[in-house]
Amino acid sequence: MQKTKKAHNLVWFTTNLRTKDNRVLQEASKQGNSVIACYCFDPRQFSKTKYGFKKTGQYRAKFLLETVKDLKENLNNLNIPLFTFYDFPENSIPQLEREYNVENVFAQNEFTSEEITIIKAVREKLNKAQLHLYYDQFLYEPSAVFSELNKIPKVFTVFRKAIEKKLSVSRVLTIVSQQAPELENLTKIPTIEKLGFEDFNKHPNSAFPFNGGETEAIKRLKHYIFESKKIGVYKKTRNGLVGIDYSSKLSAWLANGSISARTIYWAVKEFEKTHFKNQSTYWLIFELIWRDFFKYIALQHGNSIFKLEGISNKTYEWSLDQYAIEAWQNGKTAENFVNANMIELNKTGWMSNRGRQNVASFFAKTLKLDWRIGAAYFESLLIDYDVHSNYGNWLYVAGVGNDPRDRVFNVKLQAERYDPKHKFQNIWLQTSLFT
Ligand code: FAD
């Protein structure tokens, strides 16, 4: 790396991989020094968990590589070089501090244990640079939410009504271009092989055939809202199982921060102003509030969201039957609807919300398997894995979270209702016979 005495601000990207509406990037850009940026492909994210699954499987790994490539190009247009490493942030960031005279490091604030541990490790290894952290993954600002609510209500509707009544969503932020940098960035984005996978093609029947990155996220947003106007029927189609447009499919970009929830919110508002407003247009925002809700639950309850008894401290008999766990994972249970959904997940990294609810309920409530194993499997496979949404939903379905009822899905009835002609099941059950 070329050495320079010039002082720099460093943006440490994590799950905020965008240049638009990025508070961390904006704060770094307005504070005098030249801005540089980094992203670390942390080897811990590609290792195996105690349950034997890779923390990040091939689908999310590929999506992430596409995302970082796009981020690098978009940052380049702002004259901000993105340094990329296959290393721990607590190694790479102090190295950048030394080489580029970094005075300030800017990053997204986190509130789950693994992320907190890494932030702490970085802070401890910095020499003189100051670490500045900002919450930037919510629709509603935490400072505003916590000033209205002493405690996050356990029931979603109470939470939603309170914030909708009292708070508003901030406008999106714009980032100004920097002066051209006087340094050379020789770092390269790792290959998928370096992350431990063979390259692969997307499955032809995938309901999520999209690429990663901010550019693709904006394209999808425009398509779903303004071009196809599918948002206008979202409430009717959102329980769909087949095809690309039954729901917004924005979750994967939201999960790694290629798009902000605020950007989606204001696009919906723009659509409502220029086209029409109905229950469906509102419902997309309603779902974004669910996303916020699980983030606030994680913020308030900390590590309890990863515990077997969850945030409600309920104890059940949980099984560790390896045979049943593997049958579920491999789509070989007695329930074809569960199997089809699990095969879809295994072949594509995607599953619909209806599918997720059914397979999770079947795992935790029917088979009574330790729900954390199911959640870890989702963590590995899902392209759109998000720690708060995944663990929050699993807690909910497993009966140790926010649902006051202790519900078990009737998978057969669900299949009859949502896949009456077996269109969805046929796609994936037949696929598994031939591949
Ligand atoms: P849309 O229906 O178009 O909804 C728009 C957005 O609202 C989504 O992109 C998402 O950000 C948010 N949203 C919708 N439903 C939920 C919900 N139930 N909880 C939180 N946010 C929601 N979502 C993830 O993003 N990551 C996960 O790891 C994840 N794990 C899940 C695990 C289980 C067991 C269950 C039942 C649900 C999980 N979800 C998760 C929530 C939901 O299934 C997905 O967000 C949704 O299917 C994504 O598709 P979409 O973007 O087309 O959603």
Distinct small molecules: flavin-adenine dinucleotide
Strand-pairing-aware structural class: alpha/beta
Number of strands: 5
The sequence of SSEs as H and E is EHEHEHEHEHHHHHHHHHHHHHH
Uncertain segments are none
Strand order of the largest sheet: 3-2-1-4-5
Measured on Cα atoms, how large is the radius of gyration? 22 Å
From the spread of the alpha carbons, the general shape counts as globular
**With helices defined by DSSP (H or I, 4 residues minimum), what is the helix count?**
18
Seen as an oligomer or otherwise, the chain set is single chain
Largest sheet: 5 strands, parallel
Share of helical residues: 40-55%
Q: Quote the distance from N terminus to C terminus.
A: 46 Å
Fold topology:
Layout: E1 8-13, H1 23-29, E2 34-40, H2 58-77, E3 82-85, H3 89-100, E4 102-108, H4 113-125, E5 130-134, H5 142-148, H6 156-166, H7 214-227, H8 234-237, H9 251-255, H10 261-274, H11 279-301, H12 322-329, H13 336-348, H14 353-366, H15 371-381, H16 387-398, H17 411-418, H18 423-434
Parallel strand pairs: 1-2, 1-4, 2-3, 4-5
The structure holds flavin-adenine dinucleotide.
Flavin-adenine dinucleotide binds near residues 390 and 393.
